[in-house]
Structures are given as C-alpha cells and as structure tokens.
Amino acid sequence: ILKERKRVIINFLIIIQDNMINFKKLKIVLFDFDDTIALHSDHSHSSGLSESEFYSQLLTYGPAFFNNLQTNKHMRMFMDLCNKHGIRMGLISYASSNIIMQTRIQWVYQKYGYELENYCVGSREGKLDMLKAIQQTYWKGNKTVDPNDTGILYSPRQILIIDDVGQTLQEAADNNFSACTPMEVVNFIEDRQNTIGGNLIENGIYQEN
User: Fold this and answer.
1) Which helix (H) or strand (E) holds 88?
2) Nearest 10 degrees: CA dihedral of 91, 17, 209, 4?
C-alpha cells in the first residue's frame, strides 16, 4: 500500500511540474533586470539626472549605484536550482550603453552570487532577435557552432526568458521559446516548497533526478 501511495503521489507531482515551468528540459535561462531580478520601489519615470550625470554616477559608484534596488528571494532560489542542474544563466536586459549592461551584471553577481552571461540588447524588440541568435548558435554541449557545421542545437523550448513585460513574453512564446513572468517563478518555487513533493523531498522519500 505504501509503495502504491508513493507511486500515485510521484505521478501527481510529475503532472504538476508538466503544467508549470518545464524545468528539467531547460538548457539556458535568461533573466530580465528591472522588476524581474532587480525590484524597484520608485516607479517614477525620471531619475532627475541628465544622461552625462547618469553615466558619471555609474562610473563613480559602479554596482553600488543600483543599491536602492531589491533582490527577489524566489529568483535567488531559482538561480540556485539552475546552478545545481547545470543550466546556463544570462542577463537579457536592454540598455543604451555597455557601461550600464556591465554594471548590472556586476550588481547581480554581488547580490545573487552568480555571474550571468551577457545577452543584453539595445532595445526591447532586440530581445527576440537575441533569443533566436542563441538558439541558432549554441550546441547542447555549450560549444559555438561553426556556420558550416551541423548538429543538435538548443531547441527554442529549452531556452527560457523571464520578463515582466507581456509583449516580450508573447513575442517569445509566438516563436516557440519558453517564457514566463517573475510571478510564475514565485509560484514554481512556492509549489516546490509547499506541495506534498516538497515534504517528500525533505523527508527523503522522493528524490529529484
């Protein structure tokens, strides 16, 4: 009876996971910056700084310039899971200059402990082009593909973008990429912690592959 109960529970958990983020099939996860892994408390449009003053502040303070932003504990746990399962992680923020991109990556490293690969772009629309470029460029073994070579590339579904902008997610999903909001990550982590599966893992009854 106990074995049958465990089998039913495990099958139930598999059904839950299939209806959520298909985590175990992912090869790379791309995080947006603003209000995804860096949470704003001030949502006003302007910082009051001119562009030159903004750059000067970045050059002066480096990643500390973004210290008014908050981290997301669920994103931290999601990154820990990606790291545990060998899933690559990158930043796919859009910004007007390289100094902004590099400073954001440094901030993420200081706050989350992971140095994300740089897939930042110059516009929101450029995110889809970057997703396509990643899918076209990388082997499953993390090797860069020669233009004249053939082999098994990442499928679009193995590339996940996490973003708070609905239009970006819709464009990604329309092109068969995996896409989710930050709140879906929150639910994914909460379900792992709070469902029967979370209790089974803690008790050593159910083991993740």
Assistant:
1) strand 88-91
2) 170
